[in-house]
């Protein structure tokens, strides 16, 4: 989806990483979401946990939006007109509902629950995302992955993958990127990454072997989940520093809990995110905006009934580097 903030701030992320973290390797940072309207008269709202001031990334994961369960009859659902991306991949993962995806590669796909759709922006792509008429409840996450410098101009690409869920200790785990609980996704990433949906039976305790070189984040959708000793409520994102080789999740509720587990090696390059773009400099962002507004570089989305989204105005104040955020 698009970042539809009217005046998006330029965010500098991913500068040198303190692998230990201020509270030592076992400390869990709990990030609360902020509500961001997606625009339109009946504005569907998303809950954004990344980026934020205290932390901008988990591995190469640089943007986490969580939405729903949303009664589409009341909110109008999702209707995001063609918009560009560069320097990143988008990951769409649904819990319920259906989204029709069209992009300038010519892809026309339906995003459905339990199915990964990963779009590589690379040098430049554009896409539209619209919930389908048969959707009554829309519920899911939209995540972005920053591309490392050597691959940031990669060819545009679109991949679809349906993981086979695996069972372990009262949990059902769907690994859509990377490896977890004996399951591996074949989908190619440009940095080591983990992405998985974890569904926990009431009061279940699950201990997972994880890569000790990864930092991890658990975004809770439903239920109260204890992560490495810290209680997370729905819509909160718990972040764990590297150096753990196991992670323990406990469903502290009497109903089923559901969460998305993200991981990756700390992203040590400095990047700048603005609107739907990731660049290495302010000039990269200015150029991407000019290219979108002049109709070059990002291609054309065919089959969408409506105009593309105009880019917001760039901030008028000079870009100020942000304090290092892990
Ligand atoms: Mn998008």
Task: Please provide a written account of the structure.
The chain is mainly β and 326 residues long. The protein has one domain (11-16, 26-294): Jelly Rolls, CATH 2.60.120. The chain contains 2 helices and 27 strands. It has helices at residues 72-75, 282-293, and strands at residues 11-13, 28-31, 34-37, 45-50, 61-71, 79-85, 88-96, 99-103, 108-111, 116-120, 125-131, 137-146, 157-161, 166-168, 171-177, 179-180, 183-184, 193-200, 205-209, 215-222, 225-227, 230-232, 237-240, 246-251, 257-264, 271-274, 277-279. The strands form 6 sheets. Strands 2-23-20-25-18-15-14 form a 7-stranded antiparallel sheet, with no helix packed on it. A 7-stranded antiparallel sheet has the order 3-4-5-12-7-10-13. The two termini are 24 Å apart.
Low-confidence stretches: 13-25
- If helices are DSSP runs of H or I spanning 4 or more residues, what is the number of helices? 2
Could you report the average pLDDT, rounded to the nearest whole number? 90
Q: What gross morphology would you assign? A: globular
The percent range for strand residues is 35-45%
Order of helices and strands: EEEEEHEEEEEEEEEEEEEEEEEEEEEEH
The percent of residues in helical segments reads under 10%
CATH architecture: Sandwich
| N- and C-termini, Cα separation | 24 Å
């Amino acid at each position: 989806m698009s970042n539809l903030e009217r005046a998006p701030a330029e965010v500098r992320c991913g500068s040198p990483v303190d692998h230990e973290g201020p509270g030592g390797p076992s400390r869990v940072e709990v990030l609360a979401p902020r509500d961001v309207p997606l625009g339109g008269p009946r504005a569907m709202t998303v809950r954004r946990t990344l980026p934020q001031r205290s932390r901008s990334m988990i591995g190469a994961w640089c943007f986490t939006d969580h939405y729903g369960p949303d009664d589409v009859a009341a909110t109008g659902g999702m209707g995001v007109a063609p918009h560009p991306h560069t320097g990143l991949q988008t990951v769409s993962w649904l819990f319920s509902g259906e989204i029709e995806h069209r992009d300038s590669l010519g892809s026309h796909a339906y995003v459905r629950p339990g199915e990964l759709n990963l779009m590589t922006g690379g040098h430049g792509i554009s896409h539209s995302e619209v919930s389908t008429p048969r959707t009554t409840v829309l519920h899911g996450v939209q995540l972005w992955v920053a591309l490392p410098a050597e691959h940031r101009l990669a060819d545009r690409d679109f991949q679809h993958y349906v993981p086979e869920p695996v069972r372990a200790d009262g949990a059902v785990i769907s690994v859509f990127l990377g490896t977890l609980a004996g399951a591996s996704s074949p989908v190619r990433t440009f940095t080591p990454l983990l992405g998985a949906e974890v569904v926990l039976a009431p009061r279940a305790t699950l201990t997972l072997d994880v890569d000790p070189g990864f930092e991890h984040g658990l975004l809770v959708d439903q239920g109260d989940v204890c992560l490495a000793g810290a209680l997370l409520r729905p819509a909160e994102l718990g972040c764990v520093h590297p150096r753990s080789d196991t992670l323990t999740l406990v469903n502290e509720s009497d109903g089923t809990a559901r969460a998305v587990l993200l991981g990756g090696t700390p992203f040590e390059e400095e990047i700048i995110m603005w609107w739907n773009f990731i660049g290495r400099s302010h000039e990269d962002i200015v150029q991407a905006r000019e290219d979108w507004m002049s109709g070059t570089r990002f291609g054309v989305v065919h089959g969408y009934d409506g105009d593309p989204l105009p880019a917001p105005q760039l901030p008028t104040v000079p870009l100020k580097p942000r304090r290092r955020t892990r």
